[in-house]
Write a structure and sequence with these properties.
The complex is a heterodimer of chains A (about 525) and B (about 200). Chain A is mostly helical. Helices cover about 65% and strands about 0% of the residues of chain A. Chain A has 2 domains: about 50 residues, no CATH class; about 375 residues, no CATH class. In chain B, about 70% of the residues lie in helices and about 0% in strands. Chain B starts with 8 loop residues before the first helix and ends with a helix. Classes of the chains: A mainly alpha (about 525), B mainly alpha (about 200).
């Protein structure tokens, strides 16, 4: 209002009318009113307007009865509590195959033979990431060659995927998971293993690692022991990072076991010493701002990635993300991480922009192989034998990334649920759809079975959110698309389930040191999804 | 089950935000207290958007169910009222979007209603409109101007003048900043002022 006799705004006048203006400003206003006829005219006009608006507003609610919805609300809430839907991880897991009774190479040959079939399916359904199609395909009945014993979802001829009702497709999806992949999860223990005694690293042999991996086929507790074996205690990690001869990659691998502040310092040093920029190191650095997952509760059975973070940590995390995105602009995971942090900060607009950016990309990776190699180097630098460190890192490759991806998806979807609950289904829908896309991108880019598993889990979680949202909104076209995706995911679960079983058989078959060296090297170079491409 | 729900003394004494923390901890009686505190406020708030008693009552009820569902996401360092109004607002806007055909009376109709209830025009004995009539006509003119505002501006005016909300609370409800709301409100009022002057000149 610079062209006027005063700089008092009309909204300040309105505040003044209601006695909201602080005394200093009220005094300034009184002086201005005394000095300006124009302001006095504005003031009188606004006084009249406020009075008129009062009258109009009162008319809108005139005759409105007093309501009492306490009991109705509480009944609805009792129902909601009884059937409360919590976003949960599916915990896809391996079936427990019977230990084969045939000999070493027979087992390998059998596994490899099974994999010939599986590989074909995986390529077809895009489970092999970089070279495979990013979008899954649903096969049509007779056009596809029959595979003995295979339980891939096959759509009857002449029936379009969308013609199957969404709820039936989702039920089928849940059934497939329960029948083929639902066993106690190796991901269930999230740090509890740290309470157990750490092994003496120098005493861990390759055979110890293989034996535990074999036991893990039927005993999830063996995964916990493997994880404990691979986790450095803080003192050992400190020794590793302060060793001037240790490589920057080993420092990155050891930093996860250090207190956050110390880890950051060493990670910055390590990044500075690297010959080339490694986004994995940047993600590790950003991850130091994440809080430790809280113990599960009835209200929050599984952690969400940004739980427990302060605002300043979220901002620091975002700052690291910005730097990381410059180094790896095509990785959609970074958009998803940024969106999750922005949602936590209440920046819906920024988060949706990040999710829109995610939608435009083809791949997402949590750098599982880089992480496994860094862990191998850190374990070796901490005193474990080269072959044990390699084997241990290989069998655990991708498990931390699985947890991070599922925690992130859970975080995003919980934000979506909050928007949905607040009556903003549009925002919720954008979040759910982007999360589903993230799952597809992760699966499409996976080189490790754990990454593939995470991608499937993320998709499944997002689909659960979308299912109810679409049904509520009666979006027929979207429901059809989701039905197709659900059926495609059933096929992916079948393929991955077969692949995991073949991997189990490979380990159960046993082998000599040379065999395990070759296998672990192969996994750390190309991922476990590739091992049957050149099975020994 | 809840027919004889009694007011818990402890909860009556708690602030809204403390009740949300209690609710998050699993005590649903905290929600009952919040409903008692805000149900009519929310009902009237929804009524400003929907102008339909029954719909507004339904959405007021739904708002509290959503409060329950979203309880884990409530940040107790912020105020409860703008948060719950934000939920009610979103539900109301969705309802309007969903039922595009729903008839919403214009504000001008409300401004006219007062006159109709009084049995027609008030005129002085010499046939000249009296003070009350002039007020009614001014009110109708203002309501017409408000009806011509875009939806967002009308919402700001509604929240500011009908709901008596501060700029800061409006910002929380509509997902904006206090500064942006103040600027917007100033522009709206300035525009209304100019238009009312033009109408006056025209008359």
């Amino acid at each position: 209002m610079n062209d006027r006799e005063h700089d008092i705004t009309l909204d300040a006048l309105a505040d003044s009318l209601e006695g909201r203006l602080p005394e200093a400003q009220a005094s300034e206003l009184r002086d201005a009113l005394a000095a300006s006829a124009e302001l006095r005219a504005d003031y009188l006009w606004l006084q009249g307007v406020a009075h008129d608006l009062d009258a109009i507003g009162a008319q809108v609610v005139k005759g409105a009865p007093e309501i009492d919805v306490v009991d109705a609300v509480m009944r609805a809430v009792d129902k909601a509590a009884a059937s409360e839907k919590t976003v949960h991880t599916v915990h896809l897991e391996k079936r427990q195959p019977a230990r084969p009774s045939f000999g070493l190479w027979g087992a390998v040959a059998l596994a490899a033979a099974a994999v010939v079939v599986i590989m074909g399916l995986m390529f077809e359904f895009g489970l092999f990431g970089p070279s495979g199609p990013s979008a899954p395909v649903v096969s049509q009945g007779p056009d596809r060659p029959p595979v003995p014993g295979e339980r891939v979802a096959v759509i009857p001829p002449g029936e379009t995927p969308g013609s199957e009702r969404l709820d039936e497709a989702m039920e089928r999806l849940a059934q497939e998971v329960a029948e083929k992949l639902d066993t106690p999860s190796k991901h269930a223990d999230r740090g509890g293993f740290l309470a157990t005694a750490a092994p003496v690293l120098g005493d861990v042999t390759q055979d110890d690692v293989v034996a535990l991996r074999q036991a893990a086929v039927s005993d999830p507790g063996a995964w916990v022991r493997l994880k404990r074996m691979a986790t450095l205690d803080a003192a050992t990690a400190a020794e590793v990072v302060s060793n001037p001869d240790v490589s920057p990659d080993a420092i990155v691998g050891a930093a996860a076991s250090l207190p956050d502040e110390e880890a950051r310092q060493w990670l910055v040093t390590a990044v500075g010493r690297m010959d080339q920029q490694k986004p994995y190191a940047g993600l590790t650095l950003a991850s130091t701002y994440l809080a430790q997952p809280a113990a599960p509760t009835a209200e929050q059975p599984a952690p969400a990635l940004f739980d427990g973070m302060t605002e300043s940590d979220l901002r620091a995390f975002l700052s690291e993300m910005a730097a990381l995105q410059e180094a790896d602009p095509e990785n959609a995971l970074l958009d998803a991480l940024r969106a999750g942090a922005l949602l936590r900060l209440g920046d819906t607009e920024g988060a949706l922009a990040a999710l829109a950016s995610l939608q435009g990309k083809d791949l997402a990776t949590a750098y599982g192989l880089d992480a496994a190699r860094s862990q191998q180097l850190a374990l070796a630098a901490a005193g474990m034998s080269e072959e044990s460190a390699r084997m241990l890192s290989a069998v655990l490759a991708g498990s931390d990334q699985y947890n991070m991806l599922c925690d992130l998806a859970r975080d995003l979807l919980q934000s979506g649920q909050a928007y949905e609950a607040q009556g903003d289904p549009d925002t919720a829908r954008q979040i759910y759809e982007a999360t589903q896309r993230l799952g597809e991108q992760v699966t499409g880019n996976a080189r490790l079975s754990e990454e593939s598993l995470a991608g499937i889990d993320v998709q499944r979680m997002a689909m659960e959110g979308l299912e109810s949202l679409y049904a509520d909104s009666d979006l027929a076209g979207e429901m059809e698309r989701l039905t197709t995706s659900a059926l495609a995911l059933v096929s992916q679960i079948n393929s991955l389930g077969g692949m995991l079983e073949a991997l189990d058989q490979l380990f159960l078959g046993g082998g000599d040191s040379s065999f395990w060296n070759q296998l672990s090297e192969q996994i750390l170079q190309f991922g476990d999804l590739s091992v049957f491409e050149s099975a020994p | 089950m809840h027919a004889n729900r009694v007011h818990c003394v402890d909860e009556v004494q708690k602030t809204d935000e403390e009740l949300m923390v209690t609710l998050r901890g699993g005590d649903r009686e905290a929600l009952a207290e919040l409903v008692r505190r805000y149900q009519n406020d929310i009902f009237r708030f929804c009524l400003h958007y929907l102008r339909d008693f029954e719909l507004a009552r339904e959405l007021a009820q739904e708002t509290f169910v959503r409060v329950y569902v979203a309880r884990q996401r409530f940040d107790e360092t912020r105020k409860f009222r703008p948060w719950v109004l934000c939920i009610a607002r979103n539900l109301s806007l969705n309802e309007l979007k969903r039922k595009k055909s729903v008839h919403m009376e214009s504000l001008e109709e409300y401004a006219s209603a007062a006159r109709d209830e009084d049995g027609g025009l008030h005129r002085s004995s010499d046939g000249i409109p009296d003070q009350e009539l002039m007020e009614q006509e001014r009110r109708e003119a203002l309501a017409r101007l408000l009806d011509f505002l875009d939806a967002e501006s009308r919402e700001i005016v509604t929240l500011r003048f009908f709901q008596k909300m501060s700029a800061r609370d409006i910002a929380e409800v509509v997902g904006s900043t206090e500064g942006a709301v103040r600027t917007r409100l100033h522009r709206i009022l300035k525009s209304l002022r100019e238009k009312s002057l033009m109408v006056k000149d025209h008359l």
